[in-house]
Amino acid sequence: MKFHQQFKLNSHQFKTTDELIAFTKLIDEDIFHFLIDWFNKSPFIKVTTSGSTGYPKEIKLKKEHMINSAKATGDYFKLFENTTALLCMSPKYIAGKMMLVRAMVLGWDLDVVAPTSNPLEKINKKYDFCAMVPMQVTLSLNELHKIKTLIIGGGTVSNSLKRSVQNIRTDIFATYGMTETVTHIAVEKLNNKPTTYFNCLPNVKVSIDNRNCLVINAPQIADERITTNDIVEIINETSFRWLGRFDNVINSGGVKLFPEQIEFCLTDVIENRFFIASEPDELLGNKLILVIESLPYSEDKIKIMKEKLKSSLSNYEIPKSIYFTTHFVETATKKIQRQKTLDLILNQSKN
Hints:
The chain is an alpha/beta fold. The chain has helices spanning 17-27, 29-38, 63-77, 94-106, 134-138, 159-164, 259-266, 299-312, 338-350; strands at residues 8-9, 12-13, 44-48, 58-62, 84-87, 109-112, 127-132, 147-152, 171-178, 183-189, 198-200, 205-208, 213-217, 226-236, 239-245, 250-252, 255-257, 274-281, 285-293, 321-325. The strands form four sheets. Strands 2-1-6-5-7-8-9-10-11-15-14-13-12 form a 13-stranded mixed β-sheet. Strands 18-19-20 form a three-stranded mixed β-sheet, sandwiched between helices. Strands 3-4 form a two-stranded antiparallel ribbon.
């Protein structure tokens, strides 16, 4: 395994892999250990899934597939050698690892900073490319002019965040992907001529199964087709509109409700983190509930919020109960674990 001769890390260029690995030991332990694995003779890298929709699991990714994914990103965004890029996500996880792989494969000039909530705050230079999670973008709005192209992963981009980036010159994209697809396989343009759907990267085609869930055919990054639990609307073989998770769909009184679609409508109504879920109900089978990460609201605040809910949602989509909890259960990458959070709340309400 080799790296591109133009590759730079924190402004340093390297002649050998040993020289590169020795340098990373001085700047970040996780990068150091990843590069030891990257440059060994194994054709695989072991990575851990996020665990946001189940238990985290260790899987093997082919280094060849990771290289192909890096090239696809470079081709799609036209980011070739000497691209300046910023790594501000944890290199423990696939998103951070792939920023390193892209830089090494494509010959980027990559700077590494700590994965803080506002990574651009103390930076005085501009970059061609960067990846962030939604929270980082939200807290970096006044600094985003330092990035030419930004991709957002690791969580759903809220309606309010989408509105916040409309007048920003940076080209901003939401991404669709997972560990098994070596990060993103499709992107949605959020500003500067935005789209309302995801466009696939090169060599990726999509279809649906009998549940209307996305099936990914990407032979360059996966040996077999990947069947997901994401319900989508297929536009054509290289673009789709995401609707929600199959395992989150709620059948309430015979009506199918998509929690993610309801949540999208409520991002301007509820100031705290929240999610839509359900609990058993004798009449409806399952009734819609709203879970808010907060101390309980006052009666007046709940009354005002309920009025706003009525104006934002259909009768079927209005939550029948509201629960509060001070802390959501999260994965190591700060994704909300809905089921574990819900189980804790419902168990507490029974006691």
